[in-house]
Amino acid sequence: MNTDILHAGELKKADPVFGQLSFDDHEQIVFCNDKDTGLKAIIGIHNTVLGPALGGTRMWNYNSEWEALNDVLRLSRGMTFKSAITGLNLGGGKAVIIGDAKTRKTPELMRRFGEFVNTLGGKYITAEDVGMETSDMDLVRDVTPYVTGVSESRGGAGNPSPITAYGVYMGMKAAAAHRFGTDKLEGKQVLVQGIGHVGESLVEHLTKEGAKVFITDINEDRLQEVSKKYGAVIYAGDDLYTAAVDIYAPCALGATINDDTVYKIKAGVVAGAANNQLADENRHGKILMERGIAYAPDFLINAGGIINVYAELEGYGKDEIIRKTENIYTTTLEIFAHSAKNGCSTHQSALRVAQGRIDTRKQGKGA
Predict the structure, then answer these.
(1) What does DSSP say about strands 53-54 and 269-270: parallel, antiparallel, or unpaired?
(2) Which segments of the chain are extended strands (E)?
(3) CA-wise closest residue to 164 among 128, 136, 123, 188
């Protein structure tokens, strides 16, 4: 056991949790540690005004615990606004497990994590995210009812990735309609960065419509597999952000639109599945707007997944899941109109609309 205790001066240097820029008035943060399974996890509960905080669990080999904390804070905050703007009676939460999912994840670790989730009594409901599979959620269900995205054989809605991709596709078409005057993607050149479960499903939708799809990923085997399956072209340029394409679709990790890339982007539309695509949501969102690039806010168009798992709580079926997901198209157009009317970025417009719903509920006026 480590008995060293930080002195007050040293603690100040450590950047306490409440001092993190991404803290943003979180209601609760839970640090989970279990020596026997090797579990080290953080659960972030940002806001529960509209309902219980629902958000997936991400397992990632973070460089530091501070990096993991910042990620869970940013992700859980995003879930608050995602549920609010989509019209769901849910709050925002997220969890991260520190470690390589390929080598560190075990059934025992997942069940132990589920036990920690259970101690929150339903204030946080978990689901699948990066590094997780439906089978992992089934293991969590063994020890807690506060989990969604379980397999259909256990009464769940199954893998949310295809629905997430469909929502991104709807949002992308709306952004194209705003920027190009038509939502037809046939002949449009689209660069998809990251071809995991969601990215691959998005590639499928795009190729079926006749778009010319370019793909990039750190996994060479996946590139070859998806390229062969859908006829997508593996991007071979030196800098994907300077690619002369119509649409850039970030579908990997966040913050790809940052100080190094925001002025390089040549695409007329940015619409993808990744969370927290803007490293600085205020500044970079404004720059995209000033450059005439139509940015479809990530937490709006990637909401298909939470719509899918919300069905498990509300008991609605596939038809209603599709209807709610297709409504992302209409909401995206409304956000572009709101942005133009108010002279603010689409990201800020989406935040204002989402926050408005939260404030209305908080004031007891219903929403």
Answers:
(1) unpaired
(2) 28-34, 39-47, 53-54, 57-60, 91-98, 124-125, 189-193, 212-216, 233-234, 247-250, 269-270, 294-295
(3) 128
pLDDT at 8: 45
CA distance 258 to 31: 29
In sequence order, the β-bridge partners of residue 29 are: 44
Would you call 94 a catalytic residue per the annotation? yes
Asked whether the CA dihedral 138, 196, 255, 355 is positive or negative, the reply is negative
Instruction: Give every strand in the sheet of 212-216, ordered side by side.
Output: 233-234, 212-216, 189-193, 247-250, 269-270, 294-295
Convert the pLDDT of each residue in 128-173 to its tens digit.
998 999 999 999 999 999 999 899 888 887 788 999 999 999 999 9
What is the C-alpha separation between 309 and 312, in angstroms, rounded? 6
- What are the tokens at 273? 């599945």
Residue labelled with tokens 């417009």: 349
Question: Nearest Cα to 210, choosing from 186, 175, 237?
Answer: 186
Burial 47-71 (b: 16+ CB within 10 A, else e): bbbbbbbbbbbbbbebeeeeebbbb
Q: Which amino acid is at 94?
A: K
Structure tokens at 173: 């078409």
pLDDT single digits (tens) 198-223:
999 999 999 999 999 999 999 999 99
Alpha helices in 132-192 (DSSP H): 134-141, 161-180
CA distance 168 to 304: 8
Q: Which of 40, 82, 94, 123 is catalytic?
A: 94
**Which of 5-19, 93-107, 194-208 is predicted with the least confidence, judged by mean pLDDT?**
5-19
Q: Is the dihedral of CA 147, 152, 154, 156 positive or negative?
A: positive
Q: Which of the four pLDDT bands, split at 50, 70 and 90, describes residue 17?
A: confident
Residue 270 confidence (pLDDT): 98
Query: Are 234 and 215 spatial neighbours (Cβ–Cβ below 8 Å)?
Result: yes
User: What pLDDT is recorded for position 12?
Assistant: 45
**Nearest one of 205, 276, 283 to 247, comparing CA atoms:** 205
The answer to whether 77 and 46 are in contact (CB under 8 A) is yes
- Tokens for 312? 């498990």
